[in-house]
Design brief:
heterodimer; B: mainly alpha
Chain lengths: 302, 296
């Protein structure tokens, strides 16, 4: 609007300023960070606070007590937690042995245009519900399941093997089947750090495949391998579904203990175990960062 | 040193190993789909093909209602997580120090479902108590019960879970986009929104649609967080877990698991086929253009 030869700000201008580059448009980009802070970081940080609250009949009240921690460390739960850490470590090692060579092969031998398509093959199992994938292990691993029937059919065994289901081995198999694709993805990303000419130099110098793998690939890809390993370790430790379905009676991990504490309406105990779990994860990531500089994984994004 | 023949065999053996691992990962899923079509269920000596178990599932009003809730949650998750992922990817691309922001966005990936779900459960119970107290103190009722366990809290749990994936998928697609194009559009007089809509979005559209598919599937598959945060309604996965643990595995359970497996396969398969057809078409167009230039 022009009044007396001068531009006078009108309501559309005000609106434009409000939604313009320095208005709403600028602040709207902070929304995801705000959302994550509010609904991810704050609840996880408060978990530490709630873990020292006092338990009431159905809830908890502000106070300071380490009773939940005492209850955890002086019961069989701590032992179970340690055992599930051992099972999770096995899951990481097996996933690495099976999955990482695939990542190396895809990066090294498959033409670049086709690499992502090959990796998509591993997205497919990951896209099927973990619940279904774990649940589907029962008819495969059971006494009358696919594996036992097949082994009896071809005459390798006479009696069904019962140790592969409703046992710690069943849990490790379930964890590997659930999280193996992550080792392939992490390994694939990690191999970004290993330039193609490195392989050519190794070949030219006559290095054997084992030496190239051990002395060149592993050190260069260590940040990605570690990140994938932590991911598998933490999820094996914290996803209660696997021991519930494949572990049989008495099989637990941290996630399942948390669930059991919630069912028993012992919220401070649930929060204490969650805190221990979060501290384990943060310590592992810190250790990995100190050893391998985990920010290197983000270099492709940078 | 391996000769050419040995190398070719080694290459084939590695491919065979890769495909074998994929096969093993998918085998249990295909096996339960196979069982779901057996009239006599798992472990029976005879196999008679039937779709009756699927009829039972789709004829069960409670299960259909749970499927509807699952669909509502998926729609809500896509409508929230994808725009947030897009904003996050744009913010990340324009920021100088990306590491803290990326760490914040990816943090939920490293927290197991049971731990995140229980933390959010206690958080929402406290938040709800606070809002109720605030509502009583101020005498204003419109925000009473906002964070009571129910659809909204389950949806927030799912957004926390799916947002990192949406963010990463869009960010990877966006990495190929050059910001100078937006700057050129802006200097030609386009507003930020017009520059995004007409210049940037067409180039990152594939990533945004992939993120939509990703989030839909992840939301459809999510069970643990939703079970803790859902309040009074049931999703398809929650009904399946409850059936498996309380009643045991029936033909109906296998059919439910079959439905849950086939839907993601169809979605991912369609995306793969569309992507392959599209890239093939683009390649043909590029080749035709190159041929025209060469002939001149």
């Amino acid at each position: 609007m022009i009044r007396g030869g001068q531009d006078v700000p009108t309501s559309p201008n005000l609106w434009r300023r409000f939604v313009g580059d320095n208005g709403l448009q600028k602040w709207v980009f902070y929304l995801p960070a705000l959302f994550m802070l509010l609904f991810s970081i704050v609840p996880l940080a408060l978990t530490v606070v709630w873990s020292v609250f006092e338990r009431t009949t159905f809830w908890m009240e502000p106070g300071f007590t380490l009773f939940a921690y005492e209850s955890f460390f002086t019961s069989a739960r701590a032992e179970n937690y340690l055992f599930s850490m051992i099972h999770s470590s096995w899951a990481v090692v097996i996933s690495f042995i099976i999955g990482f060579p695939i990542a190396v092969f895809v990066r090294r031998r498959i033409p670049q245009v086709a690499q992502h398509r090959v990796i998509l093959l591993f997205i497919l199992p990951f896209m099927i519900s973990e619940l279904v994938r774990v649940f589907a292990m029962r008819p495969v691993l059971g006494r009358h399941g696919l594996i036992n029937n097949l082994l009896i059919e071809i005459g390798i065994i006479n009696e069904p093997i019962s140790i592969i289901l409703f046992s710690p081995i069943g849990v490790v198999i379930g964890d590997v089947m659930s999280f193996l694709p992550f080792m392939v993805f992490a390994g694939f990303l990690a191999m970004e750090a290993v330039q193609k000419y490195v392989f050519e130099v190794c070949d030219d110098l006559g290095a054997r495949a084992v030496h190239t793998f051990r002395d060149v690939i592993i050190p260069l890809a260590a940040p990605g391998i570690f990140a994938g390993g932590v991911f598998i370790f933490v999820n094996s430790l914290g996803v209660g579904l696997v021991p519930t379905i494949l572990g049989g009676p008495g099989a637990v991990n941290a996630g399942l203990i948390v669930n059991q504490a919630i069912v028993a309406v012992d919220f401070p105990l649930a929060m204490a175990i969650s805190t221990i779990m979060i501290v384990t994860m943060v310590l592992l990531l810190y250790l990995g960062h100190r050893l391998f500089d985990l920010t290197k994984i983000l270099e492709p994004i940078q | 040193m391996l000769d050419e023949h040995g190398k070719a065999w080694s290459y084939r053996a590695k491919w065979a190993y890769l495909l074998f691992v994929v096969f093993v990962l998918l085998l249990p899923v295909f096996y339960i789909i196979y069982i779901s079509f057996n009239e006599h269920g798992f472990g029976a000596a005879i196999y008679e093909f039937t779709v009756d178990w699927y009829r039972v599932v789709l004829g069960d009003r409670m299960l259909v209602a749970s499927l509807e809730w699952t669909a509502y949650l998926a729609v809500g998750a896509v409508a929230s997580a994808v725009p947030l992922g897009l904003l996050a990817a744009k913010f990340c691309k324009s920021s100088r120090n990306k590491v803290p922001f990326v760490t914040l966005m990816l943090m939920p990936l490293f927290v197991p479902a049971d731990i995140m779900g229980s933390s959010l459960l206690v958080f929402f119970k406290n938040l709800n108590g606070f809002f109720e107290w605030l509502s009583d103190s101020l005498g204003v009722t419109w925000f009473y019960g906002w964070f009571e366990l129910g659809f909204l809290t389950a949806l927030i749990g799912q957004i926390v879970y799916t947002l990192p994936y949406a963010f990463i998928v869009i960010l990877i697609t966006m990495s190929r986009y050059r910001v100078q194009q937006t700057e050129a559009a802006r200097s030609c007089g386009a507003t930020a929104w017009q520059a995004f809509r007409d210049v940037e979005f067409p180039q990152i559209r594939a990533g945004v649609f992939s993120a939509c598919a990703f989030v839909t599937i992840l939301s459809f598959n999510e069970a643990t967080r939703t079970a803790l945060l859902k309040g009074g309604f049931d999703t398809f996965q929650n009904v399946l877990v409850s059936q498996m643990l309380n009643i045991g595995m029936s033909g109906e359970s296998y059919a439910m698991a079959g439905i849950m497996s086939v839907i993601p396969m169809v979605v991912i398969g369609s995306i793969l086929i569309i992507t392959l057809i599209r890239s093939d078409r683009l390649e043909r167009v590029a080749r035709a253009k190159a041929a025209a230039v060469m002939s001149n």
